[in-house]
Amino acid sequence: MRLIRLPGLPEIQRGDDLSEQITNAARKARLRFENGDVLVVAQKIVSKAEGAVVRLANIEPSTQAEAIAERQKKDPRLVEVILKESRRLVRTDPVLIAETLHGYVCANAGVDHSNAPGADAVTLLPRDPDHSAKTLAAALRKRTGKRIAVIISDTSAVPGASD
After folding, report:
1. Is the pTM of this model over 0.90?
2. If 0-12 CB within 10 Å is exposed, 13-18 middle and 19+ buried, where does residue 55 land?
């Protein structure tokens, strides 16, 4: 097995065609996909392409979010987004651990500031990561003629996969 980093992907925006961006970056890096390859894609770029980004300026925190935020020393709007992305809170101290709407248990219900488009923006996990992975795999097959499995990965979970 070889692990190869794909360089040259641009900053992903809402509506970007990930299969196009990935195949363009592979072509520029002189990498060719083969049948049976497994492509691991960061959840963040899928979320950005699908528009799973929330502007905190548009969020009105609940009383529960404000209480948790005060204890956590976090932005109450961020806590509100985490609550909305959670089935339940598993733990609130010292870190927010939640069961996501997908059923994963992770920090902040997968809500993340890092690499988000703007200081007041956060990204969410893709709504249906398995569907996202299958759709990307199908689009890559159409573009390359190769059967490529896609795994959408996060640092704390594996949100979706295609076969």
Report:
1. no
2. middle
